[in-house]
Amino acid sequence: MLKHGDSADKLSGAAPLFSALGDPVRLAIVARLCKDGPLPTIELKQCADGVSRQGVTKHLHVLEDVGLVDSDRIGRDRQWRLRAQQFSVVRDYLDWISTQWDERLERLRAFVEDDASGKACRMQFRETLNRPTQSETTRGRTQSIRHRLARRVAAAAA
């Protein structure tokens, strides 16, 4: 599990994994391998709609390069399987992010529920809701200018 003080170098190890999983075809391949276990390339092609066998092979090599899958040659084909230990890096990174958000939400909850500051926060929030937006203020000025201009034109015409 990653700790709060971990450096960006340690966290950057997860970036290639997320990049590889960011493609819908590769994500579908991983999902199929999770569901059905080790499969040959030709069967993985079925989960990648519209992608050729060569295309699926290229996607599998991207997943292999980041360590998410391994393969063994069986005859003329390859059998692909997931490497579960690499998914622990992804899980650790997501757990670290989740912990950070939990801590921040807890601090926000404590701030809002605190009687003195919570009351001030709620009052400030209500004032913000009742304050006109920039566009409303501009619209009001424009309508006021139009109204004054219309009165001057009417007075000049009379």
From TrEMBL:
A molecular-function term among this protein's GO annotations: DNA-binding transcription factor activity
Cited InterPro entries: ArsR-like_HTH, HTH_ArsR_DNA-bd_dom, WH-like_DNA-bd_sf, WH_DNA-bd_sf
Domain HTH arsR-type stretches: 16-99
Protein name, UniProt field: ArsR family transcriptional regulator
Source species of the chain: Rhizobium jaguaris
Lineage: Bacteria, Pseudomonadati, Pseudomonadota, Alphaproteobacteria, Hyphomicrobiales
